[in-house]
Amino acid sequence: MNRREFALGNKIRGHEMGLVGSLFVAAFPGGMILPFYVYLFGAGVAWEAIGIVVCMTIVWSFASYRLMRYSKRHQSICTIPGYLKHRFCDEKEYLRVISSCQIVILSIIIMSLLIKELGLIMFETFGLDSTITEFWTCNIISAYICIFGYKAIVKTAPYKAAYMMAVIILISIVILKDVGFLTLIQNMMAIDVTGSVSEYMNILFHNGRPLVAEDYISLLSMGLLASGMPFLLTAFFSAENSDKINRGKIVMIVFLQLFFASAAVMGGISRGYLYPHKMTNSLAKYISLFYHKLASEGSLGKVMGYMLISLIVLAVLITLEGSLSIAMMIVYDDIIRGGRLIRIKKKNERLYIVLVTFLIGLSCFIVSECIEDFSINVIVVFIAALGCSVAPAVLLSLMWKRMTKYGAIAGMIGGMLAVPLLKYAPFFGEMGNKKTLCDILGINSVVPAMLASFLIIILVSLITPKPSAQVQEEFDDVKHRMT
Question: CA quadruple 389, 395, 397, 401: dihedral positive or negative?
């Protein structure tokens, strides 16, 4: 078995690269979260989508080329921890093992939360036992990754993207045709839209009030997390040349804008369409209401209802397949092989990969079963912890020659811990009236956590020995090389 080909695919086309990275980043927030949040708060939530598009464009324009060049220089690079090892010539493997454990643990938690949410959606919508849904989801996606590998994820990306776009557009058209735009507006007014319908549909308003500077920072900063998603960054290792990256960037920009715009419109339409049901802040309940309302509209409505559920399932599976493939390869390549835990013969590699994949899937199932009540915000917090730990370390390693492996280790740990500390720990104020830093600033934890991680990396790098001459020469060569 060709380990690198299994992990990164082979002869990937530019549009496939553009869509596979875009889908991983956008499927869950665009297919599920954005419509739900627009339904709840109005069009102002679209600034989150704008932030994702902007950040993805920046990452694609800068990080992609240099990550590709490092991968071409070191053919053994298959993962972000593998890249960090070679970037800093980490012979003792400390950085590689620490970053591997951190990414895998956070990925397992995120996958478990997504699986739990899917189980709740299936229970709320069809009355299916959530445990059965979670169990089969873990096993099916594990088997899919074991059999087909990264190549299948890439090759099916265009079809998944086309299907998700088609479902969102078809549902919106059918609702508008059957109900009518004026009736939807009247229904919105009848369910006490905060402020007014015009404010609800105004991108400069959020939940009936004008957006202020802090709101823009919080909404746009969510896009920063895209720069720290291991699956997206790993996709650049599979690029053969800059032409494919350039084509992928164009496809990514066009697709994300169309996809997010369509999802936002569907979310807004659902607000008036679900009348006279009361508003709900439960994602599972929202999807259930949406499905049953569609299914009550005759045979075409039932088809649209099933297509809606298929959209939700596909959005979760896209996130799971990307996260699981990365977690599996990190455990196998960076922890087992890199940590020299087991001596593996090449002919047995496929067997070990299968075992690792199903063990990770089983871990996700067990963790999902241990989770009781949670909100969608919990998933966002762990995604933020992953993004704020990986993004500063990777981006600064591509920008700053003086950065050291000790700075990378400290920055990754600091970025991960900063998210919950800044969001939940009440450090400021008098006893009995303490607040968190995020409460005081009026923003989410992403921006201060990112800044904290960058500062930690810089400070620790400056007080530790400079990288070797070999590391600095390679950095300069990668920086100035055109291909």
Answer: negative
